Amino acid sequence: MVSTLLLSQCTYINTFIKHFKLKNTHIISTPLKPNVILSNDQSPITMQCISKIYNILYQELLGSFAWAVLSLCPVVFTTSILTQFT
Fold this sequence. Notes:
Blueprint: H1 10-19, H2 47-53, H3 58-72, H4 74-82
């Protein structure tokens, strides 16, 4: 009898897309250009812009996204899961 272990992140990704209300966001192939320099000068300064991002849990969103990206690499994700049982 052959046993199979199947790991999929589709549910996780769909859950965090719903949680952060990202369903209608625009998809782009490269989020940042190489060698881009970010600074505080690019932060929102008007109340209208600030109010748009006020309720976004930025660190939580980035953490969720980072986990999804790392887990998409089959070797990294599988190893991180399986090492819990060694």
